[in-house]
Amino acid sequence: MTLQQNSGPSSIWSEVEGIAYGGDYNPEQWPVSVRLEDLELMKEAGVSFLSVGIFSWALLEPAEGEYDFGWLDEVMDNLSGAGIKVALATATAAPPAWLVRKHPEILPVTADGTVLGPGSRRHYTPSSAVYRRYATGITRVIAERYKDHPALALWHVDNELGCHVSEFYGEEDTAAFRAWLERRYGSIEALNAAWGTAFWSQNYGSFREILPPAVAPSTLNPGQQLDFQRFNSWALMDYYKSLVAVLREVTPSIPCTTNLMASSATKSMDYFDWAKDLDVIANDHYLVAADPERHIELAFSADLTRGIAGGDPWILMEHSTSAVNWQPRNQPKMPGEMLRNSLSHVARGADAVMFFQWRQSFAGSEKFHSAMVPHGGRDTRVWREVVELGSALKQLAPVRGSRVESRAAIVFDYEAWWASEIDSKPSQDAKYLDVLRAFHRSLFLRGISVDIVHPSASLEGYDLVLVCTLYSVSDDAAANISAAAHAGATVLVTYFSGIVDEQDHIRLGGYPGAFRDLLGIRVEEFHPLLAGARLKLSDGGVSTVWSEDLRLAGAEAVQTFTEYPLEGVPSLTRHAVGSGAAWYLATFPDPDGIETVVERLLAESGITPVAQADAGVELTRRRTSDGRSYLFAINHSRSSASVQASGTDLLSGEPFAGTVAAGSVAVIAEA
């Protein structure tokens, strides 16, 4: 097949039947006899795509400059013969023991000066010149060897960058941080102004005086902390780009990516910034078994991944067939949950479904992590569900390349997340994701698709835009949000938004500085609530976490606080602007209160669910460029549910009868 640089996933897998299917394949853990059995099992399961060699450096280069590719040659040839395409890894996610012994300076250092040793994985710092030399070296050797191999479809660069360690405090990291700051600011005077170093006598005379924000007697400079977050995100991507530069030189037509970890748990990397350097977005996602609404968190993470991908199809590079091994209590997935999880990702834009890993390990740290082939082999529920999923994905071939249809958007910014949760804020309970996730949950339960977009992204075409705890925002991003309201959208801004600029400098003149004029309000003072406190609202609802002393300046009050000292003060406002309206929410309502707000916003914006269905059914629609549409109806309940839709269920091949069985899925090619 012919591949083009920067091609999307649809063109990458133009020869793969159905949605691509597979996982991480680690044949180096097994003898040849098992590898040969793998080929038969892969055929039975319908596997079409595998990541190979992710943690194989120590075997490929057992001693410096000595290589053993015999086993990998055989694996690549066998996979090609079976018609399976490969995302071949650079093998750089775990340095071999000989490299650590020779160059211990590559090891990462934590904020308290602890050197993190080998014996695990990801034991390197991305700013190490020595490590980059060796990593680009093995990458070049692998690329040269397999550049013309027919199985090669994608480069899997390193693995889960920033996992386990995402902040680096060693000597080379310090030097790299200083150089990054000098490039960013140009002069030490500009840095002093940005960091507000006149406070607490923190003024710097040169970049050489700057250290990473490590352990200190009291709270650290917030500007310094924010820039250190930016630097570490940049350093990881700069390391990625150093490997990609080699791959581009040797294999210019083969696309490159790395597996992100976009979810509600991953904060340290700015994936919207990273996206421009990835040829296709790939993501790893794992459920938290103890979360009773884990399927809603999955939907949020998948929507976020699609947003990072700019709406294009993306790769689900890893998830689990059943239990993981790293949570306090590793409960297996329930019957049918793996299918529901997988097709929820597909419903939200994934054109590949992959797992960690193909065959469950018999030794090592992740031997109790589930896999496509479990310890019990073929006569297991997990294996039967793996085969069932492979068959289902083949039936979904028409869906490939389509896009999710959304009229609502949630604005999301990693830098705002970082800045809002640096120390010394009005309340430690005001978490960036809490209100955002609450609104996403409400829309999910109503069967309304929502895009998660960066503040700088085009908001054209969205009838509803939610801006939740966007603590820091640039002038351009604020103007972009304001323009959406003036153009006819219903825009909701919540508390603790627009408070500071990109340098974490307060926007003076009253809160919420960047959005005061848009919202037609002015907040004089924050009134964060004490732990466990609740406020009554004028509509009979209650709220927690936050309240404000708010004054109207053109807006109308829709709801008010009813308790001292804010009795009669607006808690929800609306301001007509241009062809649209800008709403402001000054508190965190309970779930019923969130529903009340959402009902008002949907009524004004005219957004309705993608279909009508019983409670417990997840609904999403994907649409092709020529107008064909596919409704995903995923029943998370333990009873059958009705869905008002007509067409052919791709999974059964029969006309959709209007009912989805308990714990089952229908994908309806709509008439």
Describe what you observe in this structure:
By secondary structure, the chain is an alpha/beta fold. Helices cover 31% and strands 19% of the residues. A hairpin with a 2-residue loop joins strand 20 (570-577) and strand 21. Helix 12 packs parallel to helix 13 (381-395). The model is unreliable at 1-10 (pLDDT under 50).
Number of strands: 29
Distance between the termini: 34 Å
DSSP helical segment count:
18
* CA-based gyration radius: 26 Å
Return residue spans where pLDDT drops below 50 for at least 5 consecutive residues: 1-10
Q: Strand-residue fraction?
A: 15-25%
Largest β sheet strand count, sense and barrel closure: 9 strands, parallel
* Broad structural category: alpha/beta
